[in-house]
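TA notes. Do not distribute before section.
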Amino acid sequence: MGKSAITGQCQFKGVIMRSNFAFGLAKIAAAAVMLMTAAGLATGPAAAQQTDVSKYVIGPGDMLQVSVWHNPELSTSVPVRPDGRISTPLVTDVVAAGKTSEQLGHDIEAQLKKYVADPIVTVMVSNFVGPYNQQVRIVGEASTPKALPYLAHMTVLDAMIAAGGLTPYASGNRAKLVRRIGGKETETTLRISDLLKDGDLSANTELQPGDIIIIPQSFF
């Protein structure tokens, strides 16, 4: 077989993979609508009780907006350094990583009390990265391998959409989910091809902070 024929086959396979990915997402959306219609959508106080109350933990690389009420000269936008610390006006060094925005705000207030009467500090995270042990990593035959900040109730589908799906050479149903439990690494097989191409929601596994998705290459 000539080189041009092989190249043409690879391009054709890539087009089919992208088409299958889009078709699979459409099937997933339809299945999700059917499930919600059958189960009904919870509203009112009952739904409020089910809302996730977990708070985001700041990590290195996050961009923070620090606002000091009635003291704009002390307000600033600052990145969290690789060592997990930040510096703001009058506060030369404070640990930010591993804390919520509220906790960090109180810590900055405590240091500002030396210079400002009753300071009120608000910290907002404007760009999310998250601590390393809270990230979900996708490696191997994903279109865009990357590390993602973990979000509550994140699933394999969410991660794969963020990674742009599979490459034409991926063996999605041989993918592995590596998770640390009790200090030990465990492996679980994922059926990513069934999820993305066929819309099989039973293959949509919920993720946890620190999970690693490894997607191998298919055998030819």
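Switch to the second chain here.
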Amino acid sequence: MTRLCEPVHVGLGLTTMATTSRGRRIPEATVARLPVYLRILLDQSESGISNVSSEELADLAGVNAAKVRKDLSYLGTYGTRGVGYEVEYLIYQVRRELGLTHDWPVVIVGAGNLGQALAGYGGFGQRGFPVAGIVDNDPAKVGTVIGGVGVRAVADLASIVRANEVSIGVVATPGPAAQEAADLLVAAGVTSILNFAPVVLTAPAAVNVRKVDLAVELQILSYHEQRRTATAAAPLQAVSGGSGRNATA
């Protein structure tokens, strides 16, 4: 059995449609933007702002206003002309659609560098995703405490899931151990998996799997940087070429 602790690796994807709390179909791309809107709305609320327009929300979210209005229409809210959206009510609507009206305990498989970083990040608990347990098959890891949570043996995974009513699991293992970790989570009763390992996982159709691949994100950024560099260099080449032609004319 490959060790579940993650030494160095860290290794994002979408489906197409989801369902609202009222049974309406909602595009997955919209679901992906709702947490962005929620973060902005919470900031607005903390600043004492009671209403926000679609244009303001769009500007802060980096999308266009028409897309914001379309996204929010799936929640059954359309705002008021000249007034915009009531911030507190919109926070309630977004939180309801994202299932954030109660906590969702999570369990982490893998207590290596990545698992330790995830377990030690207090932001998960603050956002409604408390870490209910961490498991690893390395005897040196079992019994240690990370972020106030004790690392337990992989054999305890099912009991952790049952005792804490866990439905979300996190795979924070090296690639070779990731599929086994996912299988263990599914067998324990977990129905949603967040995969940080640099591999594609196979899971039953009823299990939702999301992949976080930082290497892919960095490659996308390198593409944009390359384009930025090429765009900046193009005018210089044009000027240089133009000067040369003038000199020989």
